[in-house]
Design brief:
With 123 residues, the protein is mostly helical. It has one domain (19-122). It is 75% helix and 0% strand. The protein contains four helices and no strands. The protein has helices spanning 19-33, 36-56, 64-103, 107-122. The N and C termini lie far apart (97 Å).
Amino acid sequence: MSTSQPSYPTLPAAPPIHTLAIVSLVTGILGLTVCSGIGSVAALVSGYIARDEMRKRPGRYSGEGLALAGLILGWVGIGIWVLSLALAFIALIVALVFSIFFSLNLIPLIGKQVFLLPGILFG
């Protein structure tokens, strides 16, 4: 009588997660929280490289979702960065215009309209 164990089929090992996919996700999160410009650009670069390598060699790496999430976070971070630069530029222009008005003493000419506007808008 044989006491051998029955053999069960084994599942193939899952492919490893691509390192650049993880880097893309991490730098995308960092791009939204700590270092907005550089982190977002790094997320985009590493995410596109990871997706390209995974598509060229299907089945060798996993982590397509991580790379995609890093790309999305990278583009959102770039969008927030561009929006904040645009708002800073607008604030600078407004400050320069008011500085010119005050230095040329033009405020009395438009003072009632400019300074009554907040009262009209906010009660």
